[in-house]
Design a protein that fits this description.
Blueprint: E1 7-15, H1 18-26, E2 32-36, E3 40-44, E4 54-58, E5 63-70, H2 74-85, E6 91-92, E7 97-98, E8 106-111, E9 117-122, E10 141-149, H3 152-162, E11 166-171, E12 175-179, E13 187-191, E14 195-202, H4 206-218, E15 223-229, E16 236-241, E17 247-252, E18 265-267, H5 271-274, E19 281-282
Parallel strand pairs: 1-4, 5-9, 10-13, 11-18, 14-17
Antiparallel strand pairs: 1-5, 2-3, 3-4, 6-8, 7-8, 8-9, 10-14, 11-12, 12-13, 15-16, 15-19, 16-17
């Protein structure tokens, strides 16, 4: 995809109850804390080479802090920055520079059209991914994020035209699934005030997802919806709530796309499209009602 985005690197959360969220992501969720410093903690997924997939920051509000995205090289960073700098509809937060935090890297920050901060990076120092053992039931990698957008088509166009994402599928006229590599979707969009809907983490297998679901239930984590299987992406799912009210998903068997042969489908909304199996308890109506993120249009915290 040239100078376009090639991967979803991490999700940054702002959390009011930092200690509770930090404990949740380590256990029972199953990430590994790699660094913690003065109200910030970084977590890796054991099966992923990314230096971290979640960043928690202590704040006076709860919401989405940032999304970390990758491009293929420092040259791609420079090319994308130059192209966006020439676009009057894009608000950049400075020139490319060396990045701090685990893995470092070279990149820049910008706002998407709804005010979410995006960090574009390359040359990040990767970590050694570990082969997970049967029964560990911890996330292998970060899977995707789903965002609410007040003008979904405008936000869809931003990610496609400005950052190089491609459309994989739609559900009716209200949901878009966007990819930046072979994974069916790394970002999906829903109508609503600009806010985070949920973040998904891919498990090694359906069996591991079910084992993880059982562990979370035993830990008392509220399950909003699942287990079931979506149609767009063909992935199994189960959605839970974190202590700060973020919705997090265990998913498995997410579809991989042959880019040259793929034709997007517009699915007609139905309960069967949302859950092929018809097994899931709860539903989207059990998710927290979206409210505009209080951290929109805010530069990186010092």
């Amino acid at each position: 995809m040239g100078a376009g985005v090639t991967e979803l690197r991490y999700v940054g959360y702002a959390v009011a109850d930092f200690d509770a969220e930090r404990a949740f992501f380590a256990d029972p969720w199953g990430l590994t804390e790699v660094v913690a410093d003065d109200g910030i903690a970084w977590f890796a997924a054991e099966g992923s080479p990314q230096p971290f997939v979640v960043r928690l920051r202590r704040a006076n509000h709860t919401g989405l802090d940032a999304l970390g995205l990758s491009v293929e090289s420092a040259a791609a960073v420079e090319a994308l920055h130059a192209r966006l700098a020439a676009d009057p509809d894009v608000k950049l937060l400075g020139p490319p520079a060396r990045l701090s935090g685990p893995g470092g890297g070279y990149g820049f920050n910008l706002f998407d059209c709804d005010g979410r901060r995006l960090e574009i990076a390359a040359e990040v120092e990767l970590r050694a991914a570990r082969q997970l053992s049967r029964g560990e039931s911890i996330p292998r990698e970060l899977a995707h994020v789903v965002l609410h957008a007040p003008d979904r088509l405008r936000t869809e166009a931003f990610y496609v035209e400005k950052l190089g994402f491609k459309i994989s599928d739609w559900i009716g006229d209200f949901m878009s699934f966007l990819r930046c590599n072979e994974v069916h979707h790394r970002i999906a969009l829903l109508p609503g005030p600009p806010a985070l809907n949920h973040v998904a983490f891919e498990m090694r297998s359906l069996d591991e997802m079910m084992r993880g679901l059982t562990r979370l239930r035993a830990a008392g984590s509220p399950m909003h919806w699942g287990p079931g299987r979506h149609t767009a992406g063909n992935n199994a799912f189960s959605y839970f709530g974190s202590p700060n009210g973020h919705v997090v998903e265990y998913t498995a068997e997410v579809e991989r796309v042959d880019d040259a042969a793929w034709t997007p489908t517009r699915y007609t909304p139905s309960r069967e499209i949302m859950d092929q199996w018809g097994t899931a308890e709860g539903g989207p109506e059990r998710m927290p009602h979206p409210r505009a993120d209080p951290g929109l249009w805010q530069p990186p915290a010092a």
